[in-house]
Design goal:
Layout: H1 2-7, H2 19-23, E1 28-32, E2 41-46, H3 48-52, H4 58-68
Antiparallel strand pairs: 1-2
Amino acid sequence: MLQRLLDGGATVIFIEHDLDMIANADHVIDLGPGGGVNGGRIIATGTPEQVADHPDSLTGRYLREALEGGRLRRHRGPTRPCS
């Protein structure tokens, strides 16, 4: 379903905690540092690799460990530039 939307030129925005989905996103906006009243601030933005390299991103830490450990892989590169 997501791929059909992307192939049709749609922009898809979703909130997700699944590392495989995050690893295959074109652009990630990591909010935090926690949930509820402890969150809501932008911690990191960019490609999954950029977020994984961000020192303040908890999501990035888990993403980096999963990518480096071979548990995840990017299935494709960005479909189009993000602005």
